[in-house]
Amino acid sequence: xxxxxxxxxxxxxxxRRLRLPSWTPVAGIVVVIVAIIGVFLAFARGxxxxxxxxxxxxxxxxxxxxxxxxxxxxxxEAGIHTHGDGLIHIHPQFTNEEGTGASVGKFFQYGxxxxxxxxxxxxxxxxxxxxxxxPDGQTGVLRMLKYRLSWRSSSGANSLLADECSRVADADxxxxxxxxxxxxxxxxxxxxxxxxxGAPSVYGTPAPAAPSQPTVVxxx
Length: 220
What we know:
- By secondary structure, the chain is an alpha+beta fold.
- The chain has a domain at 57-195.
- Helices cover 18% and strands 20% of the residues.
- The chain contains 3 helices and 9 strands, in the order αββββαβββαββ.
- The protein has helices at 24-46, 104-111, 158-166; strands at 57-65, 68-69, 80-81, 87-90, 119-122, 126-129, 141-148, 174-175, 188-195.
- The chain starts with 23 loop residues before the first helix and ends in a 25-residue tail after the last strand.
- Mean pLDDT is 84; it is low at 39-47 and 207-220.
């Protein structure tokens, strides 16, 4: 009688499950958060307030009161300043001078004057408020016009910007709303005007200068 060969069945190997540490989900969440923060910071740097520390830009500022052009504002030093050349020099030195901290109103504040939507003060303790009368009896109001020239700070002498701005006609310019908070751009031409509403920045005839009196030498 033939013998049956009994073959033993191979034993199934037990599969070991890989056990992750209990802190692994937390670590994954932390990695995702860090990645999101990194993306946000990169985006923030790309859209940082302008101008920012390290920038050095210029805008021309002409001031007109009751139809006559005012002398350039005198020199003063700050992150937003002037050299008495008819220009606003903007190169922020601190974070509070970046973005909206480089506004026209801040420029006047640094110089020791005031500019609001209704009040302008100038050297010599002169103050002009909406509703004040000009010498010709017309009621004055404050407004500002802007026009961006092709000149840039890398283009050449700063004096060219001031000269070009003085030749820009009001009709080619755009009125600025909330002008004390306006942040100038490089190459901006700004006309700050106190005068009758709708009147051009320059009008009327300048008052003639008073004749000089001869020096009297006492007889002696």
